[in-house]
Amino acid sequence: MLLIKLLLRIIFLVLAVVAAVLCLHVDVNIIKNGLSEVSLTEIVQESILLLIVLIHLIRARRNSVQRQCNVLIAGFFLAMLIRELDGVFDLIHHGSWVWFALLSSIVTIVYALRSPALVAKQLADYARSPSYGLMVAGLATVLIFSRLFGMSVLWHDILQDGYVRVVKNMVEEGVELFGYILCLAATVNLLHVKQTA
Prior knowledge:
This protein is mainly α. It has helices at residues 2-31, 40-62, 67-84, 86-89, 97-112, 116-127, 130-149, 152-159, 165-190. Helices cover 80% and strands 0% of the residues. Helix 1 (2-31) packs antiparallel against helix 9 and helix 3 runs antiparallel to helix 5.
């Protein structure tokens, strides 16, 4: 049974990665939208972030063992979701996403830090879970690797006179989507972890 569960997790991750490449293909070759704010890739990224937030909030509500840790993780990903939805928040005022992300972060941190010792214990427990490494890898991919690998100066040097912005965008957004998939896999993996007091 354990082998079947492991195989199903591998299949889930493989299919998710294939779906990421398929999103890029649809955006560039079928929709031909150049990976705009309303591209399939962006919508899938936002949907993944929403799923991560919801799963952690549901876990926080259903079991108190990791409640503050789950609230912190949900709040962090909510701030990332708000950032991804900057185009929507620009309808209110350009750059207004910052205030919404800041507000959600403050509320999350204030809630979680009502019991600092408990939060520290829960975060230490989470850091020992199998999901932690996958989550860190996903976040490093999204927050560091995609930004560095998507730098315009790098792509100008690589493509020289053949520089086309959509190529840079496709690589950057594709890597970012892959990172989000890793974060989702880490979150889904938590669903299989029994929470005990």
